Amino acid sequence: MSNVYSMIPVPQAQQIVLDHCWTLGSETIPSHEAVGRVLSVSVVAPDSLPPFPASIKDGYAVISSDGIGTYNVVGESRAGSMDSPNPAQGTVVYITTGAPVPLGFDAVVQVEDTEEVPSEKVEEEEGTMTSSDYKQAGRKNRRVRILKAASPGQDIRVVGSDILVGETVLRSGEVIGVAEIGILATVGATHVTVYKQPHVGVMSTGDEVVEPSTSPLGPGQIRDANRSMILAAAAKAGAKVTDLGIARDTEGHIQGCFDRAVSAGVDVLITSGGVSMGDRDLVKPLLERTGTIHFGRVLMKPGKPLTFATLSLPSAAPGEGGDPSSEPQRSMMVFGLPGNPVSSFACFYLTTLPALRKLMGWSNPMLRRVQVKLAQTLKMDPERPEYHRVALQWSKCPFLEGRAEHVGCDWWAVSTGNQISSRLLSARSANALLEVPQASGFLRQGTLVSAILIDDLQAMPDPDGLSLQ
Amino acid sequence: MSNVYSMIPVPQAQQIVLDHCWTLGSETIPSHEAVGRVLSVSVVAPDSLPPFPASIKDGYAVISSDGIGTYNVVGESRAGSMDSPNPAQGTVVYITTGAPVPLGFDAVVQVEDTEEVPSEKVEEEEGTMTSSDYKQAGRKNRRVRILKAASPGQDIRVVGSDILVGETVLRSGEVIGVAEIGILATVGATHVTVYKQPHVGVMSTGDEVVEPSTSPLGPGQIRDANRSMILAAAAKAGAKVTDLGIARDTEGHIQGCFDRAVSAGVDVLITSGGVSMGDRDLVKPLLERTGTIHFGRVLMKPGKPLTFATLSLPSAAPGEGGDPSSEPQRSMMVFGLPGNPVSSFACFYLTTLPALRKLMGWSNPMLRRVQVKLAQTLKMDPERPEYHRVALQWSKCPFLEGRAEHVGCDWWAVSTGNQISSRLLSARSANALLEVPQASGFLRQGTLVSAILIDDLQAMPDPDGLSLQ
Ligand SMILES: [Mg+2]
Ligand SMILES: [Mg+2]
């Protein structure tokens, strides 16, 4: 059996997976639930912003041709409440930031460039009035001196200067984040049309594999780390997830889990274990019989037995409630991840996550690759490229610490230690997979190496305490 | 009033905010709900991994001193099921990857370094047996030739080589991510003790501000973008959130929202609007009377009127259900964000988010700062440092596109365009705030500038299509 599958390079495996992704349908959901989702329909502004000419400053709306001089304050325009004075040469209107500039006025003079001229009546009574009385009375009969002539349009945001009616404010294919939520609210989009979430089912296989709650462990048993981990990863990626449990190493038991995945309406089934070449590695044989295996060995370390298949399903799954006619021929993608936890971790990020992103509508679903400097010398493997777990950090050179050359910051990749594929601690705090080339010898400390981002750099180590300015 | 608050620099404002953060209590939750939470108690392994000496290869467990030769296969050890043969010189045990090495055997020889020797009986019957029969029969009476002598311990993971019983596998203060979920499962930690989530209440203020669902807008109205946006940002940061609505520009209305925040048990109240110097900017006066304002103006663009206060609360809020005795003196932090949406966006990231992270237990709650090259020339502001919204990308030099020098990749900061504080489109797709120094003149294209990460770089623009290898 081991010769049935030729060993393909990772980029080819990634391409095959993406080529087998279809497009999930769309759904319309409340905007406040849309963070992380991808727009399937662009959002267009139904009105302009500002919807009225708006003042940029606290000050006075003026008729710019009036120029310097002393004018009657004939009204007030505040955010949310505005007098409607008749514009006339020689008058001004008190205005606050963001408030509408009344019709007929064409500039704003900021309050710093003006001087209040209390009316005579108010001045007479000044001694007996509180400052608040004064303000109230003053409003009715105020005069102001404009000290700087305004140019037409000065300190006014014209209608539509931020957003023009009919403008596309968010494009189909954009991932909705925090700012996008604000933009949706601004244009009155309380609901948005987004790609559906892929439904991911996750199962583990293995006679030795037991529930994490098992304690003490029986002879030969190990706890199932993969299922919790992959469920968490798929949910974090934005998928709906279903826990399909642990299958024993029998065809019947594994088939039972597959059947439950199908009836739950799963789009993507992720298994772990059972893809090696032993006579109790039954996932591949089952996929061979019931579907199409697109690859069954990948040139990578860890993760060599990674398997990808598709199963055609007769019709839309019951219990999903969707419109079956909109997705004519259902099929299920199956990722057969290796059983070692680090292998399943690396394989998920390198092949499954891009697939989930593509299903969710990302226009560029591939993980981002950057170049970083190596904080320590690494031995390369002449047999396979290795995806070495590292924590990227922006810092001074870690291996020159305490020396005069320890200046200037750069992106450094710090290894998480022993990379044996059973040791999940090597994935702890990892935010990238370093691409260590297939070669003899060593990659020296300080070498520029490419790294694939697998986690948010907002939580990256900050060893130099740079973060507070 | 405008002179009451001295203008302080952003780092000082950040420090003041962090100095006023207290520690929330802990709670024990199911591990599968713990992604994004921070451990308040370290996690220790209750048993070793592997819990038994485990084979690294498919092959034969041997007694290494036996060396090269032909041996009887006296048993099998597979993941989850193991014969218990009596170890004896001159015998071997068939073993699969990850399976326990039976007692008395001290090395594994991989199958590639062995040769099966069918027993004579089996050889006689060979003609009439299927290969599966053969395997079955062969198991009972097999012999194997070991072609390479094994050294003691070869291809065996010793007990505890991945995790040692009693080892701290996750430390208090660590943020729980995908790999950490797997590690928790591995050590049988179905529940974890984590810092509580801060409870954040969000309100907007302003007579002009209306619900996003309002359409068409009445005269002088604008839709409330800030509340949805800040609710989304706080939830994304891991907080529990409560929507406190929109307050009119009256003290009574604003006080009413404050009261609702208190009775909901809010730890952090975020308001927007009402912090400028107009006579209807009532948030600051109210905070002055009911709490302590720690700063009321910050040297930043946008965001100058940013206000931070604390209110002492008489006792634990009812309706929270927590143990009041564990948090003796409750207080509420109040962030008075400016009303312009971009100002509230920038102020949230620069001051509120670090506070939320600190409350949630992050050991380094500050946003991470990196250095990037400027993709276009920017005008600096001599009055204030500017937090210019940019999309960071790893790419070739964007402004040399098509030219021979357009080689080699670097981190580039691409401006999101017009930075006026009312234009929320300038925050669309932004993943960093560029720190543009307070100065005259221009920052030239290509200059190295510091940038503060505000979003996940895993979704950064990938203009060169680098991502598929
Ligand atoms: Mg197995
Ligand atoms: Mg206001």
From TrEMBL, chains A, B:
Its cofactor is Mg(2+). It comes from the Eukaryota. It catalyses: molybdopterin + ATP + H(+) = adenylyl-molybdopterin + diphosphate; adenylyl-molybdopterin + molybdate = Mo-molybdopterin + AMP + H(+). Residues 201-358 form the MoaB/Mog domain. The keyword Oxidoreductase does not apply. Signal peptide: none annotated. Residues 114-137 are annotated as: Disordered. SMART domains: MoCF_biosynth (SM00852). One of its GO terms (biological process) is Mo-molybdopterin cofactor biosynthetic process. CDD domains: MoeA. GO terms for cellular component: cytosol. GO terms for molecular function: ATP binding; metal ion binding; molybdopterin adenylyltransferase activity; molybdopterin molybdotransferase activity. Pathway: Cofactor biosynthesis; molybdopterin biosynthesis. Its EC number is 2.10.1.1, 2.7.7.75. Residues 114-127 have a biased composition (Acidic residues). Keywords: ATP-binding, Magnesium, Metal-binding, Molybdenum, Molybdenum cofactor biosynthesis, Multifunctional enzyme, Nucleotide-binding, Transferase. Catalyzes two steps in the biosynthesis of the molybdenum cofactor. In the first step, molybdopterin is adenylated. Subsequently, molybdate is inserted into adenylated molybdopterin and AMP is released. PANTHER family: GEPHYRIN, MOLYBDOPTERIN BIOSYNTHESIS PROTEIN. Belongs to the MoeA family. NCBIfam families: Glp_gephyrin (NF045515), molyb_syn (TIGR00177). This is Molybdopterin biosynthesis protein CNX1.
